[in-house]
Amino acid sequence: MKDINVVIVGLYTYFNVPVRILHPLADRLDGVRAHTIFYKNYDSNLFSLPTEKEEKLFLDNIIKINPKIVAISLLSPYVLIAKRITELVKKHTDAVVVWGGVGPTITPDEHIKMTDVICIGEGERAFEELIVAVRDGKDYSNIKNLWVNESGKITKNPQGPLIQELDTLPFAEYGHENMYFIEQNKCSREDPELDHNILYLQSTRGCPYSCSFCVETMYHDIYKGLGKFVRRRSVDSIVEEVNLHLNRPGNKKKRVYFIDEVFGSAPGFIEEYSERFPKEVGLPFDVLYHPKSLKVKTIERLAHAGCKEINFGIQTGSDKIRNEVFTRPGTNQEIIELTNEISKFDIAIRYDLILDNDFETKETLIECIDLILQLPKPVIFNTFSLQHFPDYPMTKLAIDAGHITEEELDDWPTMMRRTTENWKFIPRWKKREKTRTNQLQRLNNIIWMMCWNHASDKIVKFAVFRKGPLSRIVFHYLNLKSVLLWSIWGEGGLLHKASFRFRPLTYSIAAIKLILKGDFHQLADKIRNKAIKPFKRYANSRNLGS
Description:
With 546 residues, the chain is of the alpha/beta class. 46% of the residues lie in helices and 16% in strands.
């Protein structure tokens, strides 16, 4: 048995929980040293291809590490970037390159053409077996979940069972000495996620719902017959992981954000969690739910446990589109009743809404405006632009309706731009090509204004529901205002771009906010970590080199 290095690559997501789990999974194997390269980070609507310098930084690390396996976790938009770095790895090392993630799982026949191995579905068990086989010089062509490409000859292995005991998996790794972060032409060994005050944590796998626009509905078919689909970690495991971070020297975590599609709603789990989490952890936390899974008793227990925000999707203001197009059960009346129940507690509500939806009409968008008018104020929204991915049920409906073509889906460069630069909704003065009329674009824009509290209910009612020249003037005023506001403050707008690309501006804005809040302790902490420590490292490096 020879010792080997393994490199795990996460594309465009620093807080990538699956990648951070794979790192300790590989590292715990005898004779294996894991390294993780986070290649670029993504922020809403801000996307940039790797530069030549960033590509060189990636390659320099690969050559230095000289891995026997390079595992790339990717989403569909990043296929061409994964293809490029695979070519670099194959040119400069003899490593086996394996791809995993949503893209290879959903469209394996396309992805296997561009790499040595793909992993379909849950990858932890298969990844471990692949590492052991390569380490020991054994054949890996028959490992379940793996498709193997040997000079064009494809071996397609069946999937193994889903992992039922999630507590057996290691916790996501942060701040490991063998982690590398490449962005803005620099490679850092400092984990940016340690500086964030939010801990992203996954406590479940699988979603019981089958929304046509979501990858989870694809998984229902892919994982059929492989064991229980919705699985949950124990309260013991959740508490232990959070406290691991709280006990870390220099811990910054002050809030937990559960990234589960649907946080636990089983009575036994929620009862135990609500009693133990506030006593044994004591941090505020945020959760995601489907409206249908939120009962009054669950809300009460979440409030008791310290929940500060519940995030759920309304997705559209049309009951017909929600149920028949999105295959998502629920009505506007049920949403209104649910929000009124949650508002009885000290819990904020964050809604998800999908705009740029070509199934919407003038009438359904006005229904959406009417629904938002009835929600408790102020509102908090995530406003998305509807995206189409290959083979999703939503995509098939859109093709049948003539909203998108097969050729558009096969255009990888266009999909990469479309799904990254327009992930969050962008108000437009000139309608997008797919939007049928200017009026539909303007209604989308006004809905965005409402979602971000940029227009009062009174003004919106006057502009949308009243008739006459003055109401039309106000309607167009709101439309113009939406475009101007987004261009400056929106996600992908001027200030957002500046804060992402020019860190000193970000730090200055953050410092002003802390001063206004009177939080001088955190301000001193930020100055120490962002200015004093980096300067000391630089000074020490200069002294060592002299």
